[in-house]
């Protein structure tokens, strides 16, 4: 008797999520640039929106200053991801200060907050790059 060989791991999502990496200090001026970077990750090169089942992750582990400007950026990034096929933004490597602030302003229910460190296909966009500086 012969059994066909299965490739890959069972019950594992084969699609690698898109990852937007946010580092440095996020200012209000950086928010439009971060939103544009996320839109670029969500769109196929032909301009169509990618499969809604594709994950959308935002790694905020490299953020050096947690404040309301960062919270505003996360809220706007969440809107961008929802407008691109109803996706939910997942935050990774969330500092405890940011988690507390998201809870305080009520955004913890709007975005998925996780602490994974799994790498994906991403863009290393720092707040400085989005501002046009550093």
Automatic annotation (TrEMBL):
Record-annotated MlaB-like STAS domain positions: 20-107
SUPFAM superfamilies (alphabetical): SpoIIaa-like
Signal peptide: none
Annotated InterPro entries: MlaB-like_STAS, STAS_dom_sf
Protein name per Swiss-Prot or TrEMBL: STAS domain-containing protein
């Amino acid at each position: 008797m012969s059994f066909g060989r299965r490739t890959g791991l069972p019950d594992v999502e084969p699609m690698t999520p898109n990852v937007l990496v946010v580092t440095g200090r996020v200012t209000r001026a950086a928010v439009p640039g971060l939103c544009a970077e996320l839109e670029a990750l969500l769109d196929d090169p032909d301009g169509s929106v990618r499969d809604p089942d594709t994950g959308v992750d935002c790694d905020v582990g490299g953020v050096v200053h947690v404040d309301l400007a960062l919270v505003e950026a996360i809220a706007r990034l969440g809107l961008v991801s929802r407008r691109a096929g109803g996706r939910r933004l997942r935050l990774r490597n969330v500092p405890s200060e940011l988690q507390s602030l998201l809870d305080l302003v009520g955004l913890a229910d709007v975005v998925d907050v996780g602490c994974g460190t799994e790498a994906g296909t991403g863009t290393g966009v720092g707040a400085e790059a989005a501002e046009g500086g550093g």
